[in-house]
Structure formats: C-alpha cells, structure tokens
Protein: Pyruvate dehydrogenase (Acetyl-transferring) E1 component subunit alpha
Amino acid sequence: MTVLDTPAWRPRTDAAPLLPDPEPYRLLGTPDAARLDAALLRSLYGQLVRGRRYNQQATALTKQGRLAVYPSSTGQEAGEIAAALALRPQDWLFPSYRDTLAVVARGVDPVEALTLLRGDWHTGYDPRACRVAPLSTPLATQLPHAVGLAHAARLRGDDVAALAMVGDGGTSEGDFHEALNFAAVWQAPVVFLVQNNGFAISVPLAKQTAAPTLAHKAVGYGMPGRLVDGNDAAAMHEVLTAAMDRARSGGGPTLVEAVTYRIDAHTNADDATRYREDDEVAAWRTHDPVTLMECELTARGLLDDALRTGAADDAEAMAADLRERMHATPVLDPMDLFAHVYAEPTPQLREQRAQLQAELEAEHRS
Structure:
C-alpha cells in the first residue's frame, strides 16, 4: 500500500450532490407554484408589502436626520422575510447591517432594530430575549459567532439552529471561509444565507470572485450549495426552511446563495450612479419581489381588494408608528458609553469613565 492509498487524504464526501443547480431555483410563475399553499402566499405577500414600506420609511428618516445611516434592502425583501420565517422561536438569527428588515420580521420592534443606525447604542434590543444577534457592521464577523453558538447548542443537547446572513462582499472576508470550514468539519446546525445583490459597495461581483457562483464555494468545504432566485419569496422560504430542517436533524450546514439586486444605493451616503447604469437598475425593477408575488396571487385568483387593502393598511400603520416614535428625541446618558462593555471594567475603562464624569460635572457647574 502506498502513501496515496491511505484513507487520510481522501475526500469525505462525493462532490456531485453538493453542487448547486445551474440556474437559480424558482417557484413563482412556474408550474410548481401550483402546489404552494394559498395561506402561505398571502402571508408572504403581506410581509413583503410591509417590508417595502419599512424600507421606504427608514430611508425617509435618514433624509430627516433621524437616522445617521440606513443600508436599504429594497428589492431584497424576499430573502429578508424568508430568513425570519424559516426560524423557530428557539433558533438564532445572525444578521448583517443590511438585515434590519429580517430582524423586524423576526419580531423585534422596528425602533429597536434601527437604534444602532441611529447612533444611540451598539444594539437597541436584547439579543437573548429575541434570539437575534446584534447587527454586524464589520463584514462577516457574525458568521463564526453563528457557528460557535450552533456548535455549542448541539454539544449541550439544545434543540437550536442558527441562520447567518451575509452579503456577496462578505464572502471575500476570511471570517466567511473560517466559518464555513468550521461548520462543515463539525457538522454544526447552521445555515449561511448569502444575499448576492451584485455589488460590495461599488465593487461588482466579477471583481471579487472567479467562481461559477457563490453557491459553488460550498463544495470546497463539504456542504451543499443552493442557488436560488432571491426575489422569489416562495422559493426562498422553501429552500431556507429545508436547509434549517436539515441542520436541525443533524445533516450539517448549507450555503444558500440568493441572487437578488440592491435597488437603492449602498447607503444614503453612497452615489450608486458612479458605478452602475440606470438601465441595469430598471431591468431589475421588472423582477421586483412584491410584483412577482402579486402576479402569482392574481393568476391564482387570490389577490382580492381585501388582501391588497389589508396589507397596505398594516404597512402604513407600521410606518406611521415608526415615524412618530423615531421623531421623539431620545434621552441619552453619556455614561452609558461605559456600560455593558466588560463584565468587570478594565482599569483603562474606569479611568476614562472618571475623566468623562469629571468633565460633565465641570460643565454642569459652569
């Protein structure tokens, strides 16, 4: 027996079953859509309309000075909604900074979801209470955290799985590769959702990777890769739900690439016209997730005035409440800068706290 005949070098899995489909998986507008539950379609529609209005209102708040910055997910609502709906109450969501809609769809108060982007706190909600990790502004750093939590939950015997969200730009970070490798080797109950919206700020995907798709990257780590139409809410819901079920049952991680598009600029501080053409944006508007769902509902005779009006009224009520509460000036304590940083404050932190306290007291006396 030669060295190359020994089993240590051999691949652990056959690559063929791990490969994604050659084209993004779709359901809406196809014959397979006939098997979809009508109640699910109505629910997805209502969530999409609400999500679109949430993005519009949050974007308006930046123009009014109530948010420091807002990374809009307009055009990506299908993936955001599906990610939240694929979770059970005990599961965990690990969002990126663009995923506030997924956080809201998970049940977090919209004002609390936007607190980080307002600049008030590092996070505005209790992660343990809602099973949502803090919004991650550094690219991909939340992915190893998701794997660690999922792996720890399995070791403890807890019935918990994690879903980690990242953009196409995040797949160029080392944290992405480390997380996928760790998850696959340990078969951690975690699903990675890559929302490929075409650009990492101004850098198009073609300048980031030469892989056939981002879903193909899964094969190198030994996990399945799924390529999905990210604007098809029904397809996204089906694929993510199946991936989460697989993770929970011990099947290991899955990498899901949602092919979508960032209709708005990277943030309100970005000028997207400098690096992409208006015609490209217009073409993607014809593949809008809300429109796709409306067409499916109409074709099946499910989109009546009651559903349309009810969804619009619910969305407007949410926007009005968000607008009213975000216009209230928050009462902030500068000393909160030093709270919740370390369980036991470091000497440097105590020194800085004392310095700020002295400056505030001096200012008050003057």
Q: What stands out?
A: The chain has two domains: 14-332, 333-366. The first helix runs from residue 38 to 63.
